[in-house]
Design goal:
By secondary structure, this protein is mostly helical. About 55% of the residues lie in helices and about 0% in strands. The chain has two helices and no strands. The longest helix is centred in the middle third of the chain and has 20 residues, at about 25-45. The relative contact order is 0.07.
């Protein structure tokens, strides 16, 4: 069954609102960015248990 793009966006937005709970929308990005980072690492090193990765020095880290 195909899902329209607008329906998908609505479903994703509704899921985000449920997951966010009492977190202010301005702070929600902090949680989403961490999840995106874990997703990237997971995809990048899929099938490589205990793979090492490095984070370059000089990149600004703002929390």
């Amino acid at each position: 069954m195909a899902v329209k793009k607008s329906e998908l966006y609505s479903l994703l937005w509704e899921a985000c609102n449920k997951l966010r709970g009492g977190v202010e929308p301005a702070r929600y990005k902090d949680y989403v960015l961490v999840l995106l980072f874990f997703k990237y690492v997971s995809d990048r090193y899929k099938g490589q248990p205990f793979a090492e990765f490095t984070i370059s020095k000089g990149l600004p880290l703002r929390i």
